[in-house]
Amino acid sequence: MSTSPAEPSAKAPGALLLCRAQPESVGPAAQLLRERMVLARAGAEWTVLVPEGTPWLRGGEPVDRVLTGWATALAVGAPWPVLALWWDADRSGYTLASGFRRTVGYEWLANGTPVGEDEAMRTFAARLGLDPVLDVQSLDRLTKPAIDAAADAQARMTGLIAILTRAGLSLPAGLGPGEPADRLREAARVRPDAEVVEWTGWRAAVRAELDVVEGTTLGPWLRGPKARALAAAQLATGLPLTAWGMHRRSGGWIVAGALLVIHGALGFAYDHMRALD
After folding, report:
1. Based on the domain organization, do 14 and 127 belong to the same domain?
2. Count of domains in the chain?
3. Are residues 208 and 248 both part of a single domain?
4. Which of 8, 54, 62, 108 is such that its CA lies 20 to 30 A from the CA of 68?
5. Does residue 250 have a pLDDT over 70?
6. What pTM, to 2 d.p., does this model score?
7. How deeply is 146 buried, as exposed, middle or buried, from its count of CB atoms within 10 A (0-12, 13-18, 19+)?
8. pLDDT over 70 at 87, yes or no
9. Where, by residue number, does the polypeptide cross the bilayer (predicted)?
């Protein structure tokens, strides 16, 4: 079937990572993904990350799988949730990652047909602390079959973002569902508060992570038997997860496993360093 000249760009894959945290906390964590991204504030309690690269266009994994891996990797070592939004020519959806808990997600076919479990929406609302009545009712409407052509996947994603605005999310102009990756990058770059996050080596990444910890109330709690047990659990989970990702040739899950290993090692290092103080 032929398409109009405007359709290809509108159908091109796009993706955003939304972290419910301040940019100064998100930046060091995002650096460990080893992916160049543009970071900007997206509300009083939110930060948006716009990927500079598009690994899903290089014959690898689809955009949803890449974003799920990145969101999981960011969330396992952070005290805040990470929401991945993604879309391509056939589908749109989200994945919410929070700590070690199982990720939850939902998606819609291009014409707006829901593909997911209603329970996922309720879990989504609970983990983000949304209103259990008004917001859950609004989310529930997004799980109902489309009643007209205007209720397509892009409209469903726009509705999801509108609900999140009540939780303080305020996406910068140009960063919306349906936009292709190149337009998202350009819209993010022109923001006055935009910052490019890129890999600068393990030494700088570890130092940045420890600086963030030192600047929060979490530092004093990352010591002692419980901290060492958590670090051991991260290592025990991260090593096989990395091996599994390598076996499946899944870049996202390799990153998730590697970050678990890194955070476990950081936990032991931090505890040991403070024990010497």
Report:
1. yes
2. 2
3. yes
4. 8
5. no
6. 0.76
7. middle
8. yes
9. 251-270
